[in-house]
Design brief:
288 residues; Rossmann fold; seven-stranded parallel beta sheet; alpha/beta
């Protein structure tokens, strides 16, 4: 990838205060993009490392500029405000990365309505509200990428990975359906939409705090940030919708050795136990 392949593009990243969102923002900055960093955390939180101001500093150290926008993803008006702020500052929006997410796992009987509404509000409703606000600006310029951090569809609805996680997984699959629809609806306007998901678990504050394994089972956030940049450097008019896995994106970009993404240098982590559709499905659902 060229280090200037996103030169002067305006990229909005939600959930940008830490983890995958912060890594995506910095990777885009290194590729020449200007960043709009949106999240809830501006002031340090002793429970979680990272703030929007920390990410802004890293973007600037990477040689770019960033606008910080604090917002509550559950508030549709604040979602619209993120896009308005991006356009007011930079005059355009080229990319929207819907990375902000809420995670909760429990059997269906143990979910409260409040928890259900929180997860769906952050994962699905915010992704819709942000995309809805961004699309008119992308239409005007005839260019845009929208990325949902969400998985491919399962081949088997009774897959073991859904047990104890069903409402969460439904919310994430809802993001993938939004991407599929946006891509089909906006293809003539130069807008592409994608879903992107890791093959193996990624080390973040969430995976650590939820006890979802250890370093030998995780990859670093860099594999998702590199895969995101690889998607965003493509011409959106030439893209076909796919619910991508990170390894697929990088392989098509010529990267097939993933050892550098290991958290434990001499241990290759195993793939997550999610049974997915056959690899050709998402390509067949895309543009001809």
């Amino acid at each position: 990838m060229s280090p200037t392949s996103l030169k002067d593009r305006v990229v909005v990243v939600t959930g940008a205060s830490r983890g995958v969102g912060a890594a995506v923002a910095v990777a885009c900055a290194r590729a020449g993009a200007k960043l709009v960093l949106a999240a809830k955390t501006v002031d340090p939180d002793p429970r979680l490392p990272g703030t929007l101001l920390d990410t802004k500093r890293m973007v600037e150290e990477a040689g770019s500029e960033a606008l910080v926008v604090q917002f509550d993803a559950r508030d549709a008006t604040q979602c619209e405000g993120v896009i308005d702020a991006a356009v007011a500052r930079f005059g355009r929006i080229d990319v929207l990365v819907n990375n902000a997410g809420a995670i909760f796992w429990a059997p269906v009987a143990d979910w409260t309505q409040k928890k259900f509404d929180l997860v769906f509000g952050v994962n699905v409703r915010a992704s819709y509200a942000l995309a809805h606000a961004a699309i008119p600006h992308m239409r005007k310029q005839g260019y845009g990428h929208i990325v949902m951090m969400s998985p491919p569809f399962p081949a088997n609805p009774a897959m073991p990975g859904a047990v104890g996680k069903a409402p969460y997984m439904v919310s994430k699959l809802g993001m993938t359906i939004l991407a599929l629809a946006i891509d089909a609806e906006e293809k003539d306007n130069g807008i592409a939409a994608h879903a992107l998901w890791p093959v193996t678990a990624i080390k973040t504050a969430a995976t650590v705090n939820l006890g979802m394994g250890d370093d030998a089972q995780w990859r670093t956030v860099d594999i998702l940030s590199d895969a995101t940049v690889a998607l965003l450097t493509r011409d959106p008019r030439a893209c076909a919708f796919r619910a991508w896995l990170d390894e697929e994106v990088l392989a098509e970009a010529g990267v097939t050795d993933f050892a550098k993404y290991r958290c434990t240098p001499d241990v290759e982590p195993s793939a997550m136990s999610i049974e997915l559709v056959d690899p050709g499905w998402s390509a067949r659902m895309g543009r001809s």
